[in-house]
């Protein structure tokens, strides 16, 4: 099959994140199975407008905001009739490809919706317009379309805007080597992420202060850099260590040595660090936030109300048993192998096209069960 | 080991049921049972409850008191605890309930303190309001019961759909059962509160408030909420939230009043959206 992905960034983009990793893993495996894959993405300084990466073709045109118009222009000039399927990767701003591609079937893919993240990422007037006017209109334009998502949370989020024909795909995870380290002697909490407001690191600091009233030797490690680093460092109470950015080895080692991993983000697409902690034998207590709850449930962690007092109570109640009986590492941290993801996504698009000619076989360690979400 | 049975009535509760049931599943107490009683939801509440680890999911109705009684009848614990589907329990709750009732035989029921969380301004006002009720026995009602105490009063009053928690609390105290309390909290997920929504909901529940007041001599003390003004320093510390809370309570009072009038005039309001 000849497949075109429309996406705002490719993996070469300096701000590429989890969504781009997902696309790249799938594209690489699809090409290996015999498909022809093209990625259309925004330009990246110092990278060519067209190149072949790991067997798939990357076409780069336009910038942060103009990539959407550039996609349309490029498709009219050189895309018509060249593909059997177009996958519209929606990252807040959509390509709405189904409106201007009429010669080829188009399926959309949502990693996550933005919603409250507007507040943290844009000045107030833009955030209000974005959250309450633009994004609802954008999402609603996919009503009556088949939409692929990576979590129940995203399925629920788009359903609120009338997009109910969703297929949930598994989230992928690259296995990690479990470092040969034991658990810490002191009760230890680890928090990983960029120190930005929407990840709410200050909630963890406040919960640590409250929990230490009952567990005086509790220690908390923060790993990750970001604009709040200096503020947090200067105000951190006793027992709280703000480590800043650390190497991958140190991150894995500390994740494995801690008794519990805490995640306090307001929203995630999936919350990959939860899977990582679980793969290293560390259980998670997470705020019950979209996306974060999906990875936490998959990793058999605990969901906590998004309040520091609740988090402190969860820590105080859970730490003794987590210290006494550390969890065994969970394969793929509750997520799935990328081979399985590539296979499931191929299956989903073939079903959408009404075809059955699979090029990728189900991996031996597959555990995913596809669920088509009921409308509500 | 004392078995603690949690009974959770649900109706179109897909948004909250997973967090609720999972918080019960990850209680530190080793012997708990989770019974979800779904009132034929139109969404996938029952499937989500099963996936989250409920031991038993049964379908029953027509209202939440009947659901709770059915759930209690199908459960096996020596202690029954009634939970709403939009609540999240702290992990130590079940063990505190079991150890309190095991060590204090004079107690037959327990109050569990509640706090609120959710999005937006009105939810923060509600959280302030709930924080003022902690320890206020005219507002709080027992949720955890020794099975024999619960069964001796015939369970929940199926003729009430609002104030049924006070009704049960009043009746169990009336037969001489002592009510204690635990320290672990229940966290109530208010979602995003809206004034119009809260008016409609209270109007719906207001229909049964009249019936409750008729049945209980001291019922009015429950409704009046004079306790809200007991902690003035707490209110002065949050002037904006206090103003919001007064507004919220005014809308709710107006809703309840409208509902009581509906009931007296024989008109029955319909609940907007989901309940239970």
Structure, explained:
The complex is a heterodimer of chains A (376) and B (276). Chain A is α/β, with parallel strands linked by helices and 376 residues long. Chain A has helices spanning 18-32, 67-78, 97-100, 117-121, 124-140, 152-159, 201-211, 229-235, 248-257, 272-279, 292-298, 308-324, 338-353, and strands at 2-6, 36-41, 50-53, 56-60, 85-90, 106-110, 147-149, 166-168, 188-192, 219-223, 240-242, 260-263, 283-287, 302-304. Chain A is 36% helix and 16% strand. In chain A, helix 1 packs across helix 13 and helix 7 packs across helix 12 (308-324). Chain A starts with a strand and ends in a 23-residue tail after the last helix. The relative contact order of chain A is 0.12. Chain B has a domain at 4-193: Alpha-Beta Complex (Spore Coat Polysaccharide Biosynthesis Protein SpsA, Chain A), CATH 3.90.550.10. Chains A and B meet through strand 14 and helix 12 of A and helix 1 and strand 7 of B. Chain A: Residues 17-172 form the Glycosyltransferase subfamily 4-like N-terminal domain. Chain A: InterPro entries: Glyco_trans_1, Glyco_trans_4-like_N, Glycosyltransferase_grp1. Chain A: Residues 183-312 form the Glycosyl transferase family domain.
